[in-house]
Structures
1.
Amino acid sequence: MFYIENCIRFLSPKTHSQREFWQAGAELIGEGGAEADGEIIALALECLERAGLGGAKVDLGSISVFRKTADQFKITNYEGLRRAISAKSMGDLREVVTDDRALEAFAYMMEGRGGPDVLKRVVEIGVQGIEEDIRYFGELFDVLKAYGYSSNVRIDLSTLREMRYYNGVVFEIFLEGVGLPIGGGGRYDVMMKEFGLGMGAVGFAVSVDLLVRAIEGLGGRKAQITPVYYLNGYRDKAIGLARRLRDKGVACIVSRYSGEKEGILVGGKVTDLRSGKVLEDEL
């Protein structure tokens, strides 16, 4: 399912963010595993490409690895630890973590970035029980490679979104020139159980406001319009041609011919007005 809607959230009076904002997102409900997660990440990147914003980068995090590491070192202040790691603040981290090995592990989570080998380094530091997470991320990168997006993603274990909402992979989407994540998402199977639904779910959302700002930063995405003109008696034929072109991604307008010098003219033949070339067979 997908949506493009205005959303409202509660914020304290001191918060400078918008309480009402536009958001576009998609949810894949009923599927689990790396295939579903990879599909939703690829969908997010493809949506941005179609909006004229190719080249987006995705940082992948793991609530599972975070929780397993915190539990191993008997740290119960999940939220304080999450804030410290997300902010990449060693000062805040030392207020929550005192064990030297734990400090080394979480400090690496703040700094280490790359492919699945990032998780192998976490094991070398001494974190146990994340073998399944290593296997999962290896598979996830394989899925994203099949979609053509493996070079757009990297593991960054400091990426930790709302823990009461997400329980598996989480991710944030970045565009060059935009200082904030333009969107993000992750897996939220646990939340589905709160609604009495024992099924997997993964999704993403992007900020429409930031999306518009990014497009404006590129000077706007102005589609090249192809005018389709028709002579008397050929309107239906022109509309049919315009529909075929639109299916191919060509933006068209259809109007009566009034002596224009550029565009496509539909009559007994279909002609390029500028060159005079007959296009019937090509279109």
2.
Amino acid sequence: MFTSQATLHRVAYDGSFRVAETSSKPPKGKTIGSKRRLKTAVKNLDELQQRLAASDRHSLLLIFQAMDAAGKDSTIRAVMQGINPAGCQVFSFKKPGRNELDHDFLWRTSLRMPERGRIGIFNRSQYEEVLIVRVHPEILQQQKLPASSINEGIWTERFESICDQEKHLARNGTVILKFWLNVSHEEQKRRFLRRLDKPEKNWKFEPGDVAERAHWDDYMRAYEDALNATSTPWAPWYAIPADNKPYMRATVAETITAALDSLDLEYPSPSDENRQAFAAARQRLMGADG
């Protein structure tokens, strides 16, 4: 069995998670060898992905949520760098378009769920609807909702809808892992300044991201409520310290590897009919007509 530091960071299922008690920095003494851990985990993940595709009974959905500059893109790149790209699907969800607003808030992510045998990755997700929309509730007025549905209970109802969907997916073979990359307010500032100071990183900087820092406390409250309401045994949240990128990447990779390993994925065994066909094919290949 593969192990992971993520068990230290898994959000409890009892609603006891508190952002204020969650560190953005790794536990002391846990950062040594992070790059080696990542390399090992990626190698193991490559093998497990092949088994996932061959068995064709499960899919894997990875959801990444974080404040800007927490390292979502670089973590996805680092963790999936040794994986067959044909077995992965990566989607980034931005501001909903007109067609998306003509459907319910889960519609656009529902279209992107991974098929059996594949790994789906959401860079931001349906959870934006209980995060940024909650911090900026005026967005609800743009979502063409019935007036009666915009009430104090809308967030609880959305949590319920998300949990119901995740339970349905899990029952049908989708393994769901959700990562909140917990970057500190101070580290985010440092990374924003680095984007401004380095010309090759200017393209990653959005002035609006700085404006959102004024809502930091509101976002933390929204994250706390969302993680408490939707961390379940079938779709757990992991609050991963993000101030140290090597530790964050290694921990995410090990968490994915451990989850896939727990499925006891096996390559399918050929049937008697297959074996006979294989023998005939071998004989033909070894013969003159091969």
3.
Amino acid sequence: MNPVDVEVNDVLEDVARVLRERETGRAQNYRSEVREVEDVVYLMPSAWQNITTSLLTLDYALAPLEAPAPAEKQGFADRGVGVFKGAIKRMIQKAVYWYVNPVVAQLHRMHGATTRALREMADQLRIISDRTEAMEKENLASRLNALEGERFDERIGRLERAWRQRASVEAAGPTPEGAPQVEYRPAGRDKVRPEPGTHFPQFQFDYYWFESIHRGDRELIKRRQQPYLEYFRDCRNVLDVGCGRGEFLELMAERDIHGYGIDIEDDAVQFCIDAGLQAEKEEALEHLAALPDETLGGVFISQVVEHMTPGEITELVGLAYAKMKPGGFVVVETPNPQCLLIFASFFYADLSHVQPIHPETMRFLLLSAGFREVEVKLTNPVPRNQRLARVVVNDPGRDASWVGELNANVDKLNSVLFSYMDYAAVARK
């Protein structure tokens, strides 16, 4: 074939075929800077990603041939076609250079600026984290002092109530004749066995005092229980089972929600009464059984079911359903056994705890009693400074897969060990 016999359409088709072969047919090493755009694609919006993809495709197409020419002996016509193809390629490269080069330079500048901004943000976040931890440590002493002051006030209140009860007993008159007299008896090896019918005063576990020490201050409990108010908005006659020091009763009073509480601890009931809250000393199952059906606007049960046996929990849920009005909500809050930290921190510290209740077990009990729309809400997350920290490596090297695998395992451990310490099962009648 003579050069003069070459058709332009045939040449353009050959050029298109070569470009397609270079794009999809073989791997090459490219010297163009456009390939570096791949490193910043993840930072670009979709429009820039489309531009980047087009530039990469163009770069693959315009990359120079590095493989040796075919071993076949080329004739004059073939050499002429090659020269013409080379000229066409150089023309295309020069034509698109002035469009590609400014975009590539802009992408590189954006990449550098974004990298610097991300590093500065990471440094600032580390500084803020360090300052937050320092502030938490500085405030720890004042928080402890405030907590000790509140506990001291509670102990003074207990002594005052005990003094009033003793005064009322003394006002009732002397001990009837014939009652057994208590005298001092030694202990240990010199212990004397009591005679039949003789009674001695026994040490009693003061649960109200124990709870005031280990549960936390009232303001903290109120902040944790405040989200539950939304389920009792505009309700009347809401029952707080195990009201304790009346944190939820106080929250309801602040929102004009009519309700009352019951508890088996004398000190807890008296504390609520002294605070102007409506509370009664009642056992939960007996109180609910004595109520008429469908008279309660809602039932709130916080940190109670873990003190009950399985049979008592089943009876409690069934009575709550029978005594509630249709459409009312029941909220059952209890420690979350899916967070193993509770067993190492406070659960077994309470002698009155019987067993933890799994969230799915509580869901099943509520559904079995007739409730609907049962939802389990995780509450009281473990503080960030007590969780396992994820690994951050500035220069992980070429094989950085171990960093992601390690952090994935850290997340799994956090989800089991340090997740949410409580949960609330919310259901509707």
